[in-house]
Amino acid sequence: MTAQQVLFYLFGAFAIVSALGMVLNVRNTVAAALSLVVTMIALAGIYVLLEAHLVAAIQVMVYGGAIVVLFLFVVMLLNLRSDAFAPGRGRLQKLAGALLGIALLAQIVRSSVALPEAPPVPPGFGGYRQLGIALYTDYVLLVEIASLLLTAAIVGALILAKRKID
Amino acid sequence: MIPLDHVILLSAILFGIGVVGVVTRRNLIVVLMSIELMLNAVNLAFVGFNRLWPGQPGQNALDGQVFVLMVITVAAAEVAVGLGIVISMFRNRDSVDIEEVSLLKW
User: I need a labelling partner for A126 at 20 to 30 A (CA). Which of A25, A166, B13, B60 fits?
Assistant: First the structure.
């Protein structure tokens, strides 16, 4: 097993364990958000191993930085009482949810085929230069739509979180 | 070399965990986090398949990674609006329990 494979399985185990920790942690929402950070950083490590360097950097900055900080900010702002998350749903619903997840997973695993070995990457693959060229030539319309979407999201979040519209 | 089957398998496992979180949890904030987890699982699949077809030298095929960037953008917008909804719900109901807002459920 090469060093890359060891790192991949290590990051994968981290991602799965912390994702389970996030979903199964019923008491503490702050701890759940911190588990989400661990998952995001582990996925960024896997992106580096898959030669997606710019995507890994953006994953750390946007997910590990901005989005999870937003979650933590809201959790702490709301000052939730501990009984606000106490007993989960009924036992039957929990069982049904777990069964649904396992069935979905089994279906995906069953339908997956053996993938061939990954070919060697061309020079500059996944770097900011090649990705920037792709974004601003083939996908320039997508970038424009993303800017519109972000503007709408800013305005929408402000309107929703405002105390009173007057 | 990383086995890409296992990358896709990891993606499927993370997506399954996210589905379980959305279906079983009552706290609206944790439900939003689980949705983020599912989006991340899809991103991992995108990056893995992009690694399988990286294109020719001098003509990289980076479509998968471009889509990952777009998914991250949409996720950021979704989180901003979703947490705005959480705040306004907490203001009106004094709780973030999703059973409190089941008015549209049949």
Answer: B13
